[in-house]
Each structure stands twice: as structure tokens, then as C-alpha cells.
Design goal:
CATH topology: Arc Repressor Mutant, subunit A
CATH class: Mainly Alpha
Strand order of the largest sheet: 1-2
Strand content: 5-15%
Largest sheet: 2 strands, antiparallel
CATH superfamily: Winged helix-like DNA-binding domain superfamily/Winged helix DNA-binding domain
Shape: globular
Number of domains: 1
Structural class: mainly alpha
Helix content: 55-70%
Number of strands: 2
């Protein structure tokens, strides 16, 4: 969408933090939808008995491979420091969702893995996400929802290296 040459003040007037409209960038739509999605996921997890899981925990949980991950891998994917991963993973370990073990080949490395309780948590998360996505598909229609995901994948591919 091409806009006329506006002053900074005029551009700032277009940015309404409390509404989405044609002037808002796509990223704003995506981040707000993402936050609403995570809020619902956390709410549903609490309803399912996972009362100690917080939205910030998802920054680690979503990037742990089922076979285990190095803190450096999680940090890169999450866009946070290795020190932050260590602190957050340590908290999740204390709550029983993760285990931190020595690497198989290099005993100096630590590997982050799901504990049995963590695997149950992930299973519950998957079930909740399926329900949320079914609701999205019902709101848009199955075919448009599938096309939306395909279009977003194409946009995302622009950033893959």
C-alpha cells in the first residue's frame, strides 16, 4: 500500500495501539494474534492443572527438540542469550518439566531434554493448539485457513537462510 508523503507527526497519528486497521503493519497483526494465542494456551494449561507454567516458559519449551537441545541452539532459535536459556531452563527443571544432563560426546556441554512430566505437558499443549487451530479454521473456513498458513509459510521463507 502506497501512502502519500506524511510528516512524522501524521504517521504517528496513524498508529493506534488499541485497534488494527489498514494502516497497521502486518507484523503488528501477527504479534498481537501470537500473544492472544499464547494467552489462550496458558489459560487452558492452567485449567488442565499446569498452574505453574507461564508465557515466558514457552520461549524455552517451544524450542526443545524431542531428542534434546543444546542451550546454544535454544538461544539462537529463541533470540535470547545462552545465560537466559540457562536460567529459564533451570527454573523449568526445578518445576519438573525439563532435565539438564551432560552431553553424550562432550561432557562439558549440557543438553536440555523434556522430563516425563514435560512430555505430558507438551502433549497437553499439542491438544490445546489443535483445538485453537480448529476454532481458527472454523472462523475463516477450512480452505481459507489452509491458504493463510501456506501464504504465511511463503512469507517466512523469505527470511530463511
Amino acid at each position: 500500500m502506497k501512502h502519500p508523503k506524511w510528516t512524522l507527526s501524521q504517521k504517528m497519528d496513524l498508529i493506534q495501539v488499541d485497534r488494527l486497521d489498514e494502516y497497521q503493519p502486518l507484523g503488528r497483526y501477527l504479534i498481537l494474534l501470537f500473544r492472544a494465542f499464547e494467552d489462550e494456551l496458558i489459560h487452558e494449561l492452567k485449567q488442565s492443572g499446569y498452574e505453574d507454567v507461564r508465557a515466558s516458559d514457552l520461549n524455552i519449551l517451544r524450542f526443545v527438540s524431542p531428542r534434546g537441545s543444546l542451550p546454544s541452539e535454544i538461544a539462537k532459535l529463541a533470540g535470547i542469550t545462552k545465560q537466559a536459556v540457562g536460567k529459564m531452563a533451570g527454573s523449568l527443571e526445578k518445576r519438573g518439566y525439563l532435565t539438564l544432563t551432560q552431553g553424550d560426546y562432550d561432557k562439558r556441554t549440557r543438553v536440555v531434554r523434556f522430563s516425563p512430566v514435560g512430555e505430558q505437558l507438551v502433549g497437553e499443549m499439542v491438544e490445546i493448539i489443535i483445538r485453537i487451530e480448529k476454532r481458527f479454521a472454523a472462523a475463516l473456513g477450512k480452505s481459507p485457513y489452509k491458504k493463510l498458513k501456506s501464504q504465511l509459510e511463503k512469507l517466512f521463507s523469505l527470511y530463511r537462510k
